[in-house]
Design a protein that fits this description.
Length: 262
């Protein structure tokens, strides 16, 4: 495995909120421990997170994601504060500082705004602080309406990986790897350990989000992989139930699915 010095790690809603809407506190804690370990061993780590609406639904005792945009905005506002408090508490236990960075898709189309955002993240990394990036769902209502979807932040993570010139992207999901078919439906599905090009056959195996909490799925992860690979980067998809697998990826062990051109 090539060098992993600057790493972007992305966690989706299903990684930190279970199918019953309960927050996975132990997973968040292990994630904080793992990323802190990487940072303290000399790596530069950026975390891209989803989950604001997911954690807000638990706080507000809601069973399903509302369809109305203003209600989604309100949940995003409520959930983002709690989400960051969870991260802050978990990382603080390991004596690791974090910083919040909220972005909207139009930042990447504005040269000045993009430069400002990159400068801020670079300054955080220089101070050994882990930036935690999320989309600003209170403002980016087009994303909530799925008109300009980051796909539960999969595409956002891929763009951030490119713009920060990171060595690679690690996406934590609710599956062990990319499979030849949906493993929850097809018992004959087998994991694909390396993808050198996203083909039509591979796209056929992709499915959307099934948790009902997030907005992504395997199809958006394939789009993220294509974006990363188009810039000669690499992406690894692993199961987020055990964030310590990130360390195995960095060591070059064969876990999950590696997306990298030949």
């Amino acid at each position: 495995m090539e060098n992993w010095h600057r790493i972007v790690v992305k966690v989706g809603t299903s990684t930190i909120v279970d199918s019953d809407g309960q927050i996975k506190y132990s997973v968040i804690n292990r994630l904080a421990q793992t990323l802190t370990s990487l940072q303290k061993s000399g790596h530069e780590v950026v975390l891209v997170t989803s989950g604001a609406i997911g954690v807000a639904m638990q706080q507000m005792n809601r069973q399903s994601r509302p369809k109305e945009i203003p209600q989604q905005q309100a949940l995003a506002a409520i959930g983002q504060t709690y989400l960051m408090s969870l991260y802050n508490q978990s990382f603080a236990f390991y004596q690791q500082m974090i910083g919040q960075v909220l972005l909207t898709y139009d930042v990447f189309d504005n040269k000045v705004m993009l430069e400002n955002a990159i400068n801020a993240v670079e300054a955080l990394l220089a101070e050994h602080v882990i930036p935690i990036i999320n989309e600003n769902d209170v403002i980016a209502v087009d994303e909530l309406d799925h008109q300009h979807s980051f796909g539960d932040n999969d595409r956002l993570a891929a763009i951030v990986t490119h713009e920060l010139q990171a060595d690679g992207l690690i996406i934590l999901s609710d599956v062990d790897a990319l499979y030849t078919a949906n493993p929850t439906i097809d018992t004959n599905a087998t994991p694909i350990r390396r993808v050198t090009a996203v083909t039509d056959e591979i796209r056929m195996s992709a499915t959307g989000s099934v948790s009902g909490l997030g907005t992504g799925g395997m199809s958006t992860k394939l789009l993220a992989a294509e974006l990363v690979m188009a810039h000669r980067g690499k992406m690894v998809l692993i199961n987020g139930a055990n964030p310590a697998l990130i360390l195995d990826v960095i060591k070059g062990e064969a876990v999950g699915t590696l997306f990298q051109g030949e």
